[in-house]
Each structure stands twice: as structure tokens, then as C-alpha cells.
Amino acid sequence: MTRIVFSQDAYDEIIEHAREGKPYEICGVLGGERDDDEGRVEFTRRVENVSETPRVNYLMEPEDQLEAIDDVEERGEVVGFYHSHPEGPEQPSETDEARANWPRHSYVIVSLGPDEPFVGSWLWTGEDGGFEEEEVVVESD
Amino acid sequence: MPVIRIPAVISETGGARKVDVEGETVLEAIRAYSEEHGPELEENVLGDGEVKEYINVYVNGKDVRNLDGVDTSVDDDDEIRIIPAASGGQ
Predict the structure, then answer these.
(1) Which residue ranges in chain B fall short of pLDDT 70?
(2) Which of A2, A3, A5, A39 is most buried by its number of CB atoms within 10 A?
(3) For this structure, is A25 an active site residue?
(4) Residue B11: its chain A contacts at CB < 8 A?
């Protein structure tokens, strides 16, 4: 199992973003470093969700997504992408799996169910291997 | 000549590419790239002569869907970028 390590600030930011965006899905880019076994998320970049059905879907605004990737790559690597499920579930949906298209990148889901927020991460290994769940670690300052 | 930039995730080599290409439109440039470097890029990016639904193509940072699509003209030193769109849902 690979793992994804968040700085405390980056972890808090994606949860805050998800809460601000509720009842709609929010999305963004995760920046930091990645090797074969581990992604390290040190900062994030919000991206506008332009899905026509934003309560249940996200689609990054194309020009904002490109600018976000360029912003992240000025400081590090694109570790992956995050989005929220305002009412759960905690796992990737069929839509998430069908549209995943960045191999070797993490797809992080911030799920806001009735209880505490849940942050899960799945590495997209490509169409053959699909999603592989990652261990999520938060590094204290 | 225009330049095509593609990230490692859709490159036929597995590494990011930045390549000069011939062509006066996005379509011509993508086809010229594929003729030289293999069919993967054209297969990954184009379907029925258009940009595929969850692929983004840009000229100088502008989404070609807001321009003339694959018929968007390109000049010397214009930069064509291609990235997979990030999307999903519940």
C-alpha cells in the first residue's frame, strides 16, 4: 500500500474548502513531492468546479486547472487532485473511477457525512489496475 | 513552428514532452506530432475529429473549446498544451 502524507496546513485546508463549499462538491490540486511509495502534500490550490450538477459531480474549469497545475509546478510536483463528497460516501464513486485519467496520481476525497470529515486517498494506477487505496497520514507541525 | 507540450501521464514515452511541430491548426499540429512520434497522442486526444470529452487542449493557455476547437489556428511560437481533465462525482 502506498501512502500520502499531508502537512497539517494542507489537510486542514482541504477540509475547510469542503465545508465552505457544501452543499456543492469542491475540487483542487495537491502539490508537493511524490515517489513510488509515497506522496507528500505540502500545499494545495483550489480550482473552480464548473460541473452542471455540482451537488454530485465536479469538473475542474479547464483554464483554472491548467493555471493551478502551473502554479503547483513552480513550487513542486502535482501529487494528485482532491474533491469533496458533501454527503458521502467515503469511497470513490463509479463516476470517479470511470473518469480518472492521471495515472500514478492520488485522488483524494473529503467526505462530509453526518460525523467527522473523512479524508481518503486512492492512487490511480491506470485502467488495468484501477484505484488502490492509500494510507493517509497527517504530519504535525 | 508551434510547440506541443504534454505531461508524462499522456506521453508515449512516460516523460513530459515539449516538441516543435508543423501545422497551422491544432488538428494539423496533433497529427504532425503523431506521425512523427506514434499514434498514441492522436488516439488519446481526438475522437470523431474533436477533442475528447475529458481531455483539455489549450493554445497559449486558452481552452480551444472557447476558440475554434481543433480548427483553432496556431502560429510560430504558439504553445499547444494538452492535459487530462480532472473530474468525477458521487
Answers:
(1) none
(2) A39
(3) yes
(4) none
Inter-chain touch B88–A62, beta carbons under 8 Å: no
d(CA B33, nearest CA chain A) in Å: 21
CA atoms of B62 and B51, how far apart (whole Å)? 14
Full residue range of the structural domain in which residue A135 is found: 3-139
Provide the number of structural domains found in chain A.
Answer: 1
Assigned fold of B3-84: Ubiquitin-like (UB roll) (3.10.20)
Q: Residue A87: helix, strand or coil by DSSP?
A: coil
Q: What is the CATH number of the domain that holds A34?
A: 3.40.140.10
pLDDT of res. A115: 78
Model ipTM value: 0.93
Q: Within an 8 Å CB–CB cutoff, is residue A22 touching chain B?
A: no
Q: Indicate the average pLDDT of chain A.
A: 95
